[in-house]
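Researcher:
Attend to token order:
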Amino acid sequence: MDIDALRRDTPGTAHRLHLNNAGAALLSRQTLDAVTAHLELEATIGGYEAARQEQHRIDATYTTLARLIGGHPDEIALFDNSTHAWNAAFYALTFKPGDRILTGRAEYGSNVLAYLQVARRTGAEIVVVPDDPSGQLDTAALADLIDERTRLVGVSHVPTSGGLINPAAEIGRITRAAGVPFLLDATQSVGQFPVDVEAIGCDMLSATGRKFLRGPRGTGFLWVRTEVLEHLDPNVIEIHSATWDGGRGFTWQPGARRFETWETAYAGVLGLDAAVRQALDLGLDRIGERAVALGAYLRDRLDDLPGVTTHDLGEHRCAIVTAKVDGLSATEVAAGLARQRINVTTTDPDHTQFDTEHRGVHPLVRLSPHYYNTEAELDRTVEVMADLARSAR
């Protein structure tokens, strides 16, 4: 990769040291231009008219996203965020008393709340699969826990609260063998490193545009395997997702678009398409190699600092790095970094409830570099963290 060229193409790098890519990455110039060009078109000729004029490019977004994850265009549904995409898949399943939902300790907070709501409504049971000694989901325990009552296995590929990469492909092998639906929350993994739905073997996958894909906020998508569609009953229906039959019935739209709604921010969709095309052009293998290496570099350097500890779990770790400074709260550390124009964020105990119950380490400082960051930027961040640690002693 030509990192200098990529940074010139990323206006935000001139103003900030951005290590909050797990929150929202910096847009490239191509993505920014795609969004603003469509907004200009809407302002010039009208929103409906602009969508009609650019329909071929809008339709191409489904193909672009399918290429990204190894699916088919008719298996993609567009959403305004990953949580809505995940909810569309989850609430299309039916549960009854005694059914079991298997998940991991790293599950995202909104997903956990959905599990709790469905358990309260239906009498289904939530089973949290334990971790193995490395801190990732224990696949042997998962295999033992799956039985005839298991209705769903739902797992976050990468948690919002750390650098863990869960063994998604092994989970997929187990769920396929058992005939149990597998819903993968890939919010933090898609765009950070290669994610292939066929290699993983999941049945449904949700993702966002704004994080490691470097797309605009307000974009996301759902992938649903064609063979699974007949077993799902979308929880929301409207004029875009189904067709009235002229009497007292309707027919779902073919493919995953039955999960969509009519109103869409097409400027964001075209921005997402531009961001994904850039990722595909760069190569997800190369993106993943550099992003993971930057995460390891930062993690190792922070671990060498007196008074600083990192808290990332798993046999394999990604570009998300979580840390604590002795004597300072996570908020104070994040504020200290912000004063030096370094963007980070903090983990929230409510966003990973099962992990919070188990480890009790949150909140932590979350630093998340991406391929356009430099080693010099990470060195600068380590210097500031070292100064903060010294000041707290």
Observations:
- The longest strand covers residues 150-156.
